[in-house]
Amino acid sequence: MTYHPLGVFDLLFAGLLLCLNAGVSIGFRLGLERTLLIAALRMVVQLGAVGFILKFAFEQGSPGLTAALAGIMILVASWDAVARSNHRIGDAWQHWGLGASAMLFSGLVGTLYCVTLLIGSEPWWSPRAFLPILGMVLGNTLTGVSLVLDTLATTTRRERAAIEARLALGATRIEALRECLASALRTALLPIVNSMAAAGIVSLPGMMTGQILAGADPVEAAKYQIMILCVIAGTTALGVLLAGIGAVWLLTDNRHRLLSERLVSAPGQDATSVR
């Protein structure tokens, strides 16, 4: 099988399938027609723009351009990660800083590990290898970071009395918040664990499917998918751990007291903070 380029009419016929979504929304009065239309338009514009940008970056092969695009990807992913949270830890900059630092460190570590030790890309900053892998890593890590911050804030608010009791009895900040942190980490890691469990039996992941459609040997495509899933899983674990521990430090002070005023509801929520 050889690569088959898609034309405009191919995409239009594919887009007709979205009528099923619209039909369900109209039939059950879900009110999602406008949201669906906006999401579809955003998808087309964003993916089309990214395609042209990546094509230009691949042709240039510039390390500066690669670094600039990677920086933009990390900033947008960081903002998206914290924007999904129903609760905020600290002020807007502190909350964003938690997500951004976790995404930056884990994303770069995972991507560099992959392109240097696993793929052996030459040069290691080649945009054709670096940017797609960074995108896959960030796409999964941002979900984990968002979940760990939101779950930790929610459970800390719910368990506030128990946490303060442990602190009053001499527990350290980590000991007092251990159960909340463990619950948040478990919630954040479940999506990637489920993805790995379903890969191959329930679903063929995107990277493997893309390579097969492009004409690659299915066994080699499976090897690459195994590699990238391992990288994504490890990077997600690193990101959620950094974000979780950072949130615990931000919610407490050096005297091991709970700073409940730093638990703030995101815009649109009822309560503004824990009293």
Describe the structure using short key phrases.
275 residues; mainly alpha; 73% helix
What does this structure look like?
The C terminus is likely disordered. It is globular, with a radius of gyration of 22 Å. The protein has eleven helices and two strands, in the order H-H-H-H-E-H-H-H-H-H-H-H-E. The protein has 275 residues and is mainly alpha-helical. Strands 1-2 form a two-stranded antiparallel ribbon. The protein is 73% helix and 2% strand.
| Share in β-strands | under 5%
Structural class: mainly alpha
Q: Look at the structure and give the mean pLDDT.
A: 89
Order of helices and strands: HHHHEHHHHHHHE
Widest beta sheet: strand line-up: 1-2
Shape: globular
**Number of separate strands:** 2
Counting DSSP H or I runs of 4 or more residues, the number of helices is 11
Radius of gyration: 22 Å
State the end-to-end CA separation.
64 Å
Could you describe the largest sheet, including whether it forms a barrel? 2 strands, antiparallel
* Approximate helicity band: over 70%
Low-confidence stretches: 270-275
